[in-house]
Each structure stands twice: as structure tokens, then as C-alpha cells.
Amino acid sequence: MSVNLYHSQRVRGFQQQSVKYSGRTMIIVLKRTKFNCPWCGSLDVTPKAVSDRKIHAEPMGFCRKVILKLTTHRLYCHACHVRVMEHIHFLLHPKSRLTRSLERTILELRQHMSIQAVANFFHLRWHTVKELEKRALKRKYSRIQTSHIKAIGIDEIHVSQRQDEGKYLTIVRDLNSGAVIHVGNGKGTEAIHGALRKLRKAKLRVVAMDMANAYYNWFAKYFPKVSGHAYCSVASFASI
Ligand SMILES: [Zn+2]
Question: Which pLDDT score is estimated for 230?
Fold first, then answer.
């Protein structure tokens, strides 16, 4: 028996070697039909088997648990002379244990169901669903549009009494929308240095901050246009 892998799982470029059932679990053994170099696209490559993988896929019919078994390969490309792992298009990153399609379904369902309910439905561990969601949030918020930002505020907040923990966090926000752009450990210029890359395209004109002197030189160095405009020192402009 064979199943249509493209329509059910968004898997293409693989052959089904076998389909087995064990209760409500379906195990599909896959084999690649052809290899090509992920760098230059050449088909002139020599594959070498690296490891056997089991990937959770979308439920099919009465089978709530569908496992794709496949062998991953390292490729040597004779055209560009590189050794590189093959690209598996239905995985979001090379070490994923779930198909891209299943990850998307889980994220959709999480808007309506608890982590535990989603985990039970797909026969996954709570931790697996939680980690998947954390990675998705990181992807979504790791790149922030800052090109429109003209005014930011910097706030130092006291978060812990303990000596062994960082006592302060420094929050950098867009003053118009209130969106957090950067959170740095500690305070002072070291804590806001991580914001530099994120603010590279910003058209900063105004910086509102407490303890203005601690940051003045830093801003004068990296955002000289700001220094010609108003630095306003405010006691506190926001709370989180
Ligand atoms: Zn190549």
C-alpha cells in the first residue's frame, strides 16, 4: 500500500519503501529518489549515509501517530567541491523531529487548545510542543522592523535583590508604539549595546532616558544625528 505523501504530508522527492501499521501508528519508510547539492544545485554528488531518523508527521485517517523513517546523508559535490548535509525540505531545521507541516498545524491548534491537549492529540510530549512554540516565537520576534522608529526610551528596572542574579534589566522601547526593541542584562551602555544592531536602520531623533549622562557618549558615537536634537531626561516614562 502506498499513500500520497505530497498531498497528505507535503513530502516530495522521496520514495515510499514500505508502510507498516502498529495499532493506530503508521510507519512510512522513505528513500530519496535523487540528491542534489544545496549550494549549487548540481546532481553530480556522492551521498554518504549519516544517521537514521524518525520524524513525526501529520495524522492520517485513523492513524493519529504517523512516523516517517529515513536515512540522512552527507553529500560531496563534484561541482563546487564541498561536503554538506543534504537539505530536507519538509523539515524547518535539520534537527527537527516533526515535519514542517505538523509544526504549522500544532501552532494553529495552540490558539484554541492547551499545550497538554495538543500534545495528547498528536501523541507528543508536553515539552516537545512547548519547545516548538518557543522556537516559533523566537523566529517571529527576533527580527523587528525598526526603520520607522524615530524616538526611543531607555528604562532601567530593578528586578532582583539577590547578589548572584543580575539586579537590573535595561529596556529599550519605541516611544510611539511602546513596543520593546531590546532587553539588556544589567544597566549602562553595556546593557544597551545589543540594541545597536536592531536600531541600525532606525531614523532616531529623540532618546528619552533616565540617568542621561551614562548613555550620552554612547549615543553621540553611534547616532550622531540624535546629538543635534533633544535629549530629554525623564524620571520614568514607562512601566512593564
Ligand atoms: Zn555544489
Answer: 43
Ligand 1: centre distance to CA 226 (Å): 47
Gap from CA of 76 to ligand 1 centroid (Å): 8
What is the mean predicted confidence (pLDDT) over 165-173?
81
Protein residues placing their CB within 5 Å of the ion ligand 1: 37, 39-40, 42, 77, 79-80
pLDDT at 211 over 70: no
Ligand 1 centroid to residue 14 C-alpha, Å = 20
Stretch 171-177: mean pLDDT, rounded?
86
CB 233 within 8 A of CB 212: yes
Cα–ligand 1 centroid distance for 15 (angstroms): 23
Q: What does pTM read for this prediction?
A: 0.61
Q: Is the pLDDT of residue 57 over 60?
A: yes
From the CA of 83, how far away is ligand 1's center (Å)? Answer: 9
Q: Is 154 within 8 Å of 215 (Cβ atoms)?
A: yes
The β-bridge partners of 85 are 74
Using the mean position of ligand 1's atoms as its centre, give its distance from the Cα of residue 131 in Å.
Answer: 33
In the chain, what are the domains?
5-142 (no CATH), 151-233 (3.30.420.10)
d(CA 180, CA 215): 18
Distance CA 58, CA 44 (A): 33
Residue 105 CA to chain centroid, in angstroms? Answer: 16
Tens digit of each residue's pLDDT (9 = 90 or more) over 182-202:
888 888 888 888 888 888 888
**Is 50 exceeded by the pLDDT of residue 228?**
no
H helices, E strands: number in the chain: 8, 10
Give the residue-averaged pLDDT of 43-51: 95
